[in-house]
Write a structure and sequence with these properties.
Layout: H1 10-27, E1 49-59, E2 65-77, E3 82-86, E4 89-93, E5 99-103, E6 106-109, E7 116-126, E8 131-141, E9 146-149, E10 153-157, E11 160-164, E12 166-170, E13 175-179, E14 183-185
Antiparallel strand pairs: 1-2, 2-3, 2-4, 3-6, 4-5, 5-7, 6-7, 7-8, 8-9, 8-10, 9-12, 10-11, 11-14, 12-13
């Protein structure tokens, strides 16, 4: 029996070398393995894009920014043309350049970006007027500048506080209205 017949040949060592290199490259793979989950494929369809840690700025016809949204996650579904945002922080800019601040647990921009619906602990502030509103669902029509809620709302302008079943505000006119079963606390002004 020949000794060279028991020794592995060149092809054997080449296959072993390729397997070891392949295993080493697998361990060194720089690709991130924890890619964020996509929106489940349901009645809204599969998303065509999503963004993580995004800032969305919308401009009016004159090219002036009128709405800014910061969100940890933005998802757009083409079937219904709706953009969904998680934990949005918003700045709504009126015709006078004042910022109205809003946030919520979730948000939806309707087809063509209007209306914007905030849901879950929706909060709206008018810093220049020192008032703030808390409600469950808040809707903003950027074309008319109308913000409204048809869920119970609490309006505060310290030290005053009012509650009502419906809230309306027109940010360009600097007008707000609380209606239906309105109650309030208005402490007397100090002498």
């Amino acid at each position: 029996m020949k000794l060279s017949a028991l020794r592995p040949g060149f092809r054997f060592w080449l296959v072993i070398l390729l397997l070891v290199l392949g295993g080493g490259l697998t361990l060194l793979d720089p690709r991130e393995s924890n890619v964020p989950d996509l929106v489940p494929n349901d009645k809204t369809g599969e998303p065509d894009y999503y963004l993580v840690d995004a800032r969305l700025t919308r401009f009016d016809a004159q090219g002036t920014p009128h709405q800014r949204i910061d969100t940890p996650r933005l998802v757009h579904t083409p079937l219904d043309d709706v953009t969904r945002v998680d934990q949005p922080d918003l700045a709504l800019i009126d015709d006078s350049g004042r910022e109205w601040i809003a946030d919520a647990d979730n948000g939806e921009l309707g087809p063509d970006g209007n209306p914007l619906t905030l849901s879950g602990n929706a909060h709206l502030e008018a810093p220049a007027e020192r008032w703030q509103l808390d409600t469950e669902v808040l809707v903003y029509d950027s074309d008319s500048g109308h913000v409204w809620s048809e869920t119970p709302a609490v309006l505060r302008q310290p030290p005053q506080q009012m509650q009502g079943e419906r809230f309306d505000a027109w940010i360009h006119d600097n007008t707000a209205r609380l209606t239906d079963n309105v109650t309030g606390h208005h402490p007397p002004e100090p002498q």
